Amino acid sequence: MGDVPWVQIGLGLAVFAAVAWVVYLAGKRMNVVQAARLAEAEAREAEELRSRQEARMPGGSPTHPIEVASAAVIEPRASSLPCPRCGGPAHVDEHAVETQAEQRLRVTRMRCGTCGHRRPLYFLVRSSAVEDA
Fold first, then answer.
1. Rounded CA separation 11/65 (Å)
2. pLDDT in tens, 8-59
């Protein structure tokens, strides 16, 4: 074998180092992408867990309505409950009547003034006039 010029050896090592660096960065980039995907999946899972917990809270679903004596107390009662996400004050956006499972329920659409979270609250009006009839 003949003598290999030192310049060619140096260039070969430089190319090898550059390729190794690109491979390293690509692997690191994949780890960042994988970490971002994992964080998104964990956030979705936490959101689903919070939603399930909210549904089990009093008023969180039609099967767990908050019982009140009069429709007049629904909005003040709903506004007095804090946001389940951040604890901030919640406001009533809408107050409607729905029939579910042969029960007339009052539904308030709530919105948090701090984090913007929206959720329904279900109420069942239990008055003595309705029970006597």
1. 76
2. 777 788 888 888 888 887 777 767 778 888 889 988 898 888 888 888 888 8
The reply to whether 102 and 119 lie within a common domain is: yes
Q: Tell me the CATH number at 89.
A: 2.40.10
Per-residue pLDDT of 89-119, as tens digits, reads 989 999 989 888 788 899 999 998 888 889 8
- Tell me if residue 53 falls in helix, strand or coil: helix
Mean pLDDT in residue range 63-83: 89
Q: What is the dihedral of CA 66, 71, 76, 77, to 10 degrees?
A: -10
**Distant-in-sequence, close-in-space partners of 104: CB < 8 Å, separation ≥ 6:** 97, 98, 125
Domain count of the chain? 2
Judged by DSSP in three states, 32 sits in: helix
64 and 18 in a common domain:
no
